[in-house]
Design goal:
CATH architecture of the largest domain: 3-Layer(aba) Sandwich
CATH superfamily of the largest domain: Zn peptidases
Number of helices: 14
Strand content: 15-25%
Structural class: alpha/beta
Number of domains: 2
CATH class of the largest domain: Alpha Beta
Length: about 500
């Protein structure tokens, strides 16, 4: 879909539909809505007085102009309570409206810059939110579907500028919103791919293409190099699969210093059967998405390279399959990590923390200023926070605060969880330095405490996206399937650090 910025009178916009907003409990239309109401002979006011248009958030009302406007239809978007209006609500209502219009067969729409002047919303930020909402809300994954889609596509969305002076601001917002949305869509594509199309080798191919497109430095470590480095935990997980493990490193450098300002690590389990500790068969197909963390950091660094903040970022993905077999690692085994720390295996289905442990060891040797790791790590985090919030675990409150703020700006909610030292006791082993599963309690926290063993004193935040990486239904700009969380959070964080 092309998103363009135009200037002119909203009554003269040529489109199949033009969208304007209305806040809840407003007695009379104002601004653009009032202008359209006047040309339509008071139709909007009449529907408001009759209670058909209430302005409640997400409410959509379509009015046919019957030749009174250049646009064939006017769509009134309910914006909800004015005092509660945010940029994320712009994303949400635009996404819902675009899907609504698409199902009506409309392929050309226009919208005003919604919410400008409310709660500090600027033309630039409104344009960015509109762009993100439209692109993310209309996302679909149809690569393996041969049947033609039921509905056509919206080919063009125009954002109408209030004045010539706003055009440049709207264009800047549009351009940034497109980069963020396309990055999230890239992560969605990767996660939605079945595991036979998204193997560790396929992840490397994608990383190579992105490195070429966006001038990133790429290094891929093969099994022999991982063995030389002592990545026993990662290789232990990989040994049950015929797919060779890959350790993907992408570097973005825009700072004169050789220091790494931000290291991103993403769990890349391209399929997780649970290994010898086999998962139940029901819904095991969803385990193709266990590489959502890896997809997120790859997509994020691709977007960061386009936005060009003056920092150095390294993204790392340990990519492996976790399968049962005659060579698979077993409960009771002891694996040795890159640091030399030994791990007793209680469950082979707690494999994510093992590959992340060696990745954290590797990254720490590079001495980054701060580390963010992203992983679909625990079902316990889903129990604690559902699919609404990502769980955050940290050894540094200042960095944790930055991550939460970056998430809020993206509309990707993050809730910080406790990391009290008492939880570390649950990971103690009788036969090794540590075990890979605690007891039945506080599973998300004990998993984070396991990772913390390999972080040291480097400022670090672990994001457990087990609940937020997938959605089981359409909700605002999320669609069924992969969400692309927390790609936009990571991008926002990099931009904030650069400032």
């Amino acid at each position: 879909m092309e998103i363009r910025v135009i200037s002119g009178d909203v009554t003269e916009v040529k489109a199949s539909a033009v969208m304007v907003g209305l806040f809840e409990k407003v007695k009379n239309p104002d601004d653009y809505t009032a202008t359209l109401d006047n040309v339509l002979g008071g139709t909007i006011s009449q529907l408001m007085s009759q209670g058909e248009i209430k302005g409640k958030f997400g409410e959509l009302t379509i009015i046919h102009s019957l030749g009174k406007l250049f646009a064939e239809r006017v769509v009134i978007l309910g914006l909800g309570k004015k005092q509660e209006f945010t940029l994320d609500k712009i994303r949400g209502v635009v996404a819902e409206a675009c899907r609504f219009l698409q199902k009506k067969g409309i392929d050309d729409a226009a919208t005003i810059a919604l919410g400008v002047g409310v709660g500090g919303i600027t033309p630039k930020s409104a344009s960015q939110a509109i762009t993100e909402g439209a692109l993310l809300g209309l996302y679909s994954f149809r690569r393996h579907i041969t049947k033609e889609p039921e509905y056509g596509e919206i080919k063009q969305l125009s954002i109408v500028a209030n004045s010539e002076a706003d055009i440049s601001l709207l264009e800047h917002g549009r351009d940034k919103g497109k980069i963020l949305a396309e990055a999230a869509k890239l992560a969605r594509d990767m996660v939605n791919e079945p595991a036979n199309y998204m193997t560790p080798g396929h992840m490397v191919k994608m990383a190579k293409q992105l490195a070429k497109d966006y001038d990133l430095e790429l290094v891929v470590l093969e099994r022999e190099k991982m063995l030389e480095l002592g990545m026993g935990a990662l290789l232990g997980v990989a040994q049950g699969s015929a797919q060779s493990p890959k350790f993907i490193i992408l570097n973005y450098k825009e700072n004169d210093s050789n220091e790494i300002d931000l290291a991103l690590i993403g769990k890349g389990i391209t399929f997780d059967s649970g290994g010898i500790s086999l998962k139940p068969g029901r819904k095991m197909e969803e385990m193709k998405g266990d590489m959502a963390g890896g997809a997120a950091v790859i997509a994020a660094i691709a977007a960061i390279s386009q936005l060009k903040p003056a920092i150095n970022v390294t993204a790392i993905v340990p990519a492996v399959e976790n399968l049962p077999g005659g060579r698979a690692f077993k409960p009771g085994d002891i694996l040795t990590t890159m640091t030399g720390k030994t791990v007793e295996i209680i469950s082979t289905d707690a494999e994510g923390r093992l590959v992340m442990a060696d990745a954290l060891c590797f990254v720490n040797k590079l001495k980054p200023k701060q580390i963010i790791d992203v992983a679909t790590l625990t079902g316990a985090c889903v129990v604690a926070l559902g699919d609404v919030c990502t769980g955050a675990f940290s050894n540094n409150q200042e960095l944790a605060n930055k991550v939460v703020i970056a998430g809020a700006k993206a509309g990707e909610l993050i809730w910080q969880m406790p990391m009290y030292t008492e939880y570390k006791e649950l990971n103690k082993s009788d036969v090794a330095d540590i075990k890979n599963v605690g007891d039945n309690n506080a599973g998300a926290i004990t998993a984070a405490q396991f990772l913390a063993e390999f972080v040291g004193s480097t400022p670090w935040v672990h994001l457990d996206i087990a609940g937020t990486s997938m959605s089981n239904k359409e909700r605002n700009y999320l669609v069924k399937g992969a969400t692309g969380v927390p790609v936009r959070t990571l991008i926002n964080l990099a931009l904030a650090i650069a400032k």
